[in-house]
């Protein structure tokens, strides 16, 4: 099968799966079989593209020509390949986990949940495969709209309020800033194509580059830079599988992926470095890193703490783009994968705790490691990866980011990265310590093991293994990504 056909299938398979899931909704076992089959088929389709991309191929496909020079198109390069393979693999994990969670928690509207999940993955593939800014913008918006029903899944007043914040903030930033930046770029250059080395050099005055960068970075609201981050904690009213989707599989990763793609293929890292106009973005990213971590320390709700942790971690990727050098692009891009595996593990654990015990507050989780030792040990592995300690994958992305800051003679950001990692420890490790070493607030210490359903625990084990494997096989990601640092 040709790469062109595989790229079409990557967006079509989840849509076809969504239709089959909807039609089989009256038969839960068949519906869930359709969900898993669709996820496996998507991963197989995306994985089939990897050898060509590793060999240097850059397949392109024109879909629709809107007007001369302006078209919808797919084009796959290493950064998109990384995002697509991570998202498609983690959808398998999330699908297995969702079955255990939705059944164990006896959630309503399960068919609708699986249908919109599949539609969201189709949009995610469209983002990963976008060949130009117009295609990226369209699929970016479709991703926002298709995930809204998942955010408000529970239908409570709190869920509706959270969904309103989610939809309102993401749509307003993308239309008000992102679309304006795209139109400005078209007016300046006459093209929206993602091009190695960028397209803006020689077309925009150095004094205006900073403003255009501002429009892009804050227009891509899914990157969750402060102060445009409120949608992310607000969306935590959604079920745990949706939180995992938002934080690891699709939504926020689509945001930081878009920021990195714009930095590399629209501005060009050499152009950003030459103009020096991304320095302000380094400080915004650093401030977001530290501030969000401090807010996370104050949160007692586990999902809220993890949400602010994500806000902080996304800023690592933005910092990598803003440093505008090879190590920064490599570190930031690698962090897309490293954070995805670590954070999905943590959110899966939060959901498993809720299914097994009904607990959502960290202060209520004293001694929970005695009854859920597997879950809490896997939480510890995910936490180590997010912190960036060996032998976990997160070690390497943070290593390259620190090298990038040192190479740019921006040693203040080396310090920020170290402090941020220490804050990661401060808000994650006490959860594990409380679980294993603090006596429960009961007169009788619970000793009976009571884990969440196996379909919840198995995916956590697999994603935690992924955190470890990414440490030992990070060279595969490195070799995939190196070409994007070369004009």
Our measurement of the CA-to-CA distance between the termini, rounded to an integer number of angstroms, reads: 30 Å
Helical content (DSSP H or I, runs of 4+): over 70%
Count of separate DSSP helical elements: 20
Written as H for each helix and E for each strand, in order along the chain, the element string is: HHHEEHHHHHHHHHHHHHHHHH
Please give the largest β-sheet.
2 strands, antiparallel
Class derived from helix and strand content: mainly alpha
Radius of gyration: 21 Å
Q: Provide the domain count.
A: 2
DSSP, total strands: 2
Q: Assess the beta-strand content as a share of residues.
A: under 5%
Give the overall form.
Answer: globular
- Low-confidence segments, given as residue ranges, are none
Q: Strands across the major sheet, in which order?
A: 1-2
Task: Please tell me the overall pLDDT.
Answer: 92
In short:
This protein is mainly alpha-helical and 487 residues long. Helices cover 73% and strands 3% of the residues. The chain is globular, with a radius of gyration of 21 Å.
Describe this structure in words.
Strands 1-2 form a two-stranded antiparallel sheet. It has 20 helices and 2 strands. With 487 residues, it is mainly alpha-helical. The chain has 2 domains: 1-253, no CATH class; 278-487, no CATH class.
Summary keywords:
73% helix; 2 domains; 487 residues; 2 strands
Reconstruct the topology from this structure:
Elements lengths: L2 H21 L4 H20 L2 H5 L5 E8 L2 E6 L2 H27 L5 H20 L3 H19 L5 H33 L16 H14 L11 H4 L5 H10 L1 H17 L1 H7 L3 H20 L3 H22 L2 H32 L15 H15 L6 H14 L3 H27 L16 H19 L1 H8 L6
Antiparallel strand pairs: 1-2
